[in-house]
Design brief:
Layout: H1 5-14, E1 29-31, H2 38-46, E2 51-54, E3 72-77, H3 80-90, E4 96-99, E5 113-119, H4 126-132, E6 133-144, H5 150-157, H6 169-178, E7 182-195, H7 198-207, H8 221-234, E8 237-249
Parallel strand pairs: 2-3, 2-5, 3-4, 5-6
Antiparallel strand pairs: 1-7, 6-8, 7-8
Helix pairs in contact: 1-7
């Protein structure tokens, strides 16, 4: 039996949005994966170093996938529920979790780490990344690219022409170089997202809070109803995410 609009609203509102695990969306939404396999690349790199820092680790889900971690492994996170979740997940692996605001400075000494990693950081402070890397150390990350999921964002917020250039990989590579890093690899891709019901939309907008700032079901109920009717009439809502892999090295 197909769930009613009201039932879908309730399901989306009641879902647990802590951490950075999106398995609740199974059967409700799909997203293509980038071709380079970030978690695998991260794990391979971690096996080769003596010290690592994962910035904005979320609930630690991606970092926990590494088959091997270095002797000194640290992760930072700012959102208190995620700090607790990451601590529970990562401490048994010997990874220390540090509660830290997503703004400079990072609470570590100069040249402290061989490797800095991050998956989908909300903010990128290149000078701080360069500062905490040892000479010869690397920053390996997967970033969200420009105009990612803007079909959904603009459905709720209207056209956002000023924001479409944000997070462009060329701009980020230039900023990395300005901080003294050598960009040794930069790859980008555009991926298809299919969303099958408004409960998934609500879950996403509650979890990824910067997509539609101040989102609540009550505030956007009219748009949610329009989106529900559109999905019922036309099928899945289609959006596109953009991602880029960046590998930058601090010169020896």
């Amino acid at each position: 039996m197909t769930a009613s609009f009201e039932q879908l609203l309730a399901e989306g509102e009641s879902a647990d949005v802590e951490g950075w695990d999106f398995s609740w969306l199974d059967g409700r939404a799909t997203e293509e994966r980038p071709p380079w396999g970030y978690a695998r690349l991260m794990g391979e790199r971690m096996a080769q170093v003596q010290s690592s820092l994962d910035i904005q680790t979320g609930g630690g889900e991606v970092l926990a996938m590494a088959p091997q971690v270095p002797k000194l492994a640290v992760a930072t996170e700012s959102y208190p529920p995620n700090v607790a979740k990451a601590t529970e997940l990562l401490h048994p692996r010997g990874i220390a979790v540090v509660a830290d605001l997503d703004e400079p400075p990072l609470p570590f000494a100069n040249a402290a780490f061989d490797l800095v990693t991050s998956r989908h950081p909300a903010t990128i402070w290149w000078d701080e990344i360069a500062r905490v890397l040892k000479p010869g150390g690397s920053y390996l990350a997967q970033h969200v690219g420009p105009a990612s999921v803007f079909e959904l964002i603009e459905f709720f917020m209207g056209p956002q022409p000023q924001a479409r250039r944000g997070r462009h990989p060329d701009d980020e590579a230039e900023a990395a170089r300005a901080a003294g890093l050598d960009v040794v690899d930069l790859r980008q891709t555009r991926l298809c997202i299919e969303i099958f019901d408004v409960a998934a939309v609500i879950y996403l907008l509650r979890k990824v809070i910067w997509w539609v700032p101040g989102f609540t079901v009550e505030k956007y109920q009219q748009q949610l109803r329009m989106l529900h009717d559109r999905i019922q009439r036309e099928g899945p809502f289609i959006a596109h995410s953009t991602r880029h892999l960046i590998d930058a090295r601090r010169p020896e």
